[in-house]
Amino acid sequence: MSLLGWILFLVVAAVCAWIAGAIVPGAVPGGFLTAMVLGVVGAWLGTRMIGQFGPTLAGVPLLPAILGSGILIFVLALASRGLRRG
User: Fold this and answer.
1) Average pLDDT, consecutive stretches of 10 residues, N- to C-terminus, the chain (86 residues)
2) For the chain, how many structural domains are there in total?
């Protein structure tokens, strides 16, 4: 993958994580950088869970990336709330 392809992959994955963050309650600590990481991991997790489903953009399957990112954001929001209380 070229450098431009990798940058596009990260941006699309971050946008998928941002969309998932808008749907799932709870805030993502760390902002855009954390969203990029969650988007990449969420794309991988979502693809492992439901496969290459739906449209792709820059090599990122959009629906699995949004679903996987949503799950990660939900878990991260729960964990960060638990850490703040304890």
Assistant:
1) 82 80 71 74 84 83 85 81 64
2) 1
